[in-house]
Write a structure and sequence with these properties.
With about 80 residues, the protein is mainly alpha-helical. The protein has 6 helices and 2 strands, in the order βαααααβα.
């Protein structure tokens, strides 16, 4: 069984939101900047709660910010 990854478009949406910094997003969702860095690099999968908070920060549905499965491998 191959490893299934959760990917995201956080970096893209930060830049599309007035070039929001990693720190600004971290403050908005209640995590450290290092957590945002790890998420963007694909080194960390967020909890469901954090994923929803991030999507809400961009006023987007969860599935527009995060993706699951084979597509995640293609995005890396």
């Amino acid at each position: 069984m191959s490893k299934v990854l959760v990917g995201n478009y956080i970096r893209k949406f930060r830049f599309n939101n007035n070039e929001m910094t990693q720190q600004q997003l971290a403050d908005k969702v209640g995590v450290t900047r290092q957590t945002i860095v790890a998420l963007e690099k694909g080194n960390y999968s967020p909890s469901l709660e954090l994923a929803f908070r991030i999507a809400h920060a961009f006023n987007l549905p969860l599935e527009e910010v995060f993706f699951y499965g084979d597509h995640a491998e293609e995005e890396r």
